[in-house]
Fold this protein.
Amino acid sequence: NAGVMQNPRHLVRRRGQEARLRCSPMKGHSHVYWYRQLPEEGLKFMVYLQKENIIDESGMPKERFSAEFPKEGPSILRIQQVVRGDSAAYFCASSGGLPADTQYFGPGTRLTVL
Amino acid sequence: SQQGEEDPQALSIQEGENATMNCSYKTSINNLQWYRQNSGRGLVHLILIRSNEREKHSGRLRVTLDTSKKSSSLLITASRAADTASYFCATPNSGNTPLVFGKGTRLSVIA
């Protein structure tokens, strides 16, 4: 059973460009979560999605950030007009049931903004 | 606001010793989870303890939960160099909401 997959693993963007991060949840999981982690910090919740629906986006900045989880295909976290402060590791997790249940994490995408 | 706070922030021990990490949280919970993160990697789920449980074991891991003190501890017995990692506790912020993670305890096990 394949785990949570994320790509790319490393992404370099210049200021002002767009970053697209992809996440394929574990097979059979319909709940996806995105987190951001700065160096030496814990994970900060960004957004929680189920298929075709955003359930909780309370941790996601209102501007430049968006997320989707279409009926077919991976979940995508999109950051427009990136700034240096967006440099971080972005982790995706999935669960098969309730959001308070065990979450299974992907390896992360490390975004570097030059 | 931060739901879980781990203590200590960093811990260095010799191989074979036991490592104890603590987590305090603010609001009532229905479960508390511990995760491990190796450097540069994603998080790996270690153990989930429900609010009606007081203690749980998994291999060399022992987790306790004291809901009256709103605290939990993770004990790793007979530590190994491979246990070197950051350890995070996580709880739902309230009810059945997504998990909130603490800043973690960085454990170094010296061979």
Remarks:
- Chain B has a mean pLDDT of 91.
